[in-house]
Amino acid sequence: MSELQGRRIRDGIRHDIRLSVLSAAVFAVAAAAVLWLQAHGITRLYADADPGHWWYLVVSYLTVLILQDALFYATHRLFHHPGLYTAFHRGHHLSRRPTPWTSFAFDPPEALVQALFLVGIVMLIPLHLITLLAVLSTMTVWAIVNHLDLDTLPRRFPHHLLGRWVIGPSHHSLHHSRPSVHFGLYFTFWDRVGGTQDGRYGVGRRFISVRSSAEQP
Ligand SMILES: [Zn+2]
Ligand SMILES: [Zn+2]
User: Other C-beta atoms within 10 Å of 13: how many?
Assistant: First the structure.
């Protein structure tokens, strides 16, 4: 790696950390809002342990992930519209080469949209506190995994079977190098349905990364 490349990566990480701090502030306000709503009995969160309904924990967990994935895909495509891109999403793409620091580097308006989803979901769907915790943990771990630099991973990391249906670093890296493809969060479903999956992704036994063909959004 040249000195110039090293400096660019360091500058990108600094920028991502600054933006992540702002995003964390937005999510903290949303968490405070959830606590306030909970104190006033407005959320549908519950903490009762009912062993007979363990299956509901799993169903509600998967339901939230599926809804979050669909909303993320729709809003993510919207944020790439030239009229919205600068205000909502440019910050996330300033680092052409993502690092784990990019995981929560969102412009505040984008962070607000994502946080509002969580505020809305706890008012709409009955969720056990453990389920909410599991969703938040999944969201965090998945975001970090999706922004792992492929070069630091074993060549065969992007799981040939799961990788067709589940989004990982190979899939999301392509979005950072070619912002017109791969808008999903957890699953490849909406990119397939919406025709935004790179035609070469998953072809053969190798999951590709095409950083060289950088595009404007
Ligand atoms: Zn990203
Ligand atoms: Zn994007």
Answer: 16
Three-state DSSP class for residue 209: coil
pLDDT tens column, 27-58: 999 999 999 999 999 999 999 877 678 899 99
The number of domains in the chain is 1
- Model pTM score: 0.87
Q: Which domain holds residue 34?
A: 3-154
CA of 61 to the centre of ligand 2 (A): 25
Among the bound ligands, the one closest to the CA of 95: 1
User: Does some domain include residue 211?
Assistant: no
Model confidence over 106-126: pLDDT tens digits? 999 999 999 999 999 999 999
Residue 162 C-alpha to ligand 2 middle, in angstroms?
22
Looking at the CA of 98, name the nearest ligand: 1
Find the ligand nearest to 144 CA: 1
Nearest ligand to the C-alpha of residue 102? 1
Asked if 57 and 131 touch (Cβ cutoff 8 Å), the reply is: yes
Q: 126 in a domain, yes or no?
A: yes
Q: Coil, helix or strand for 45? A: strand
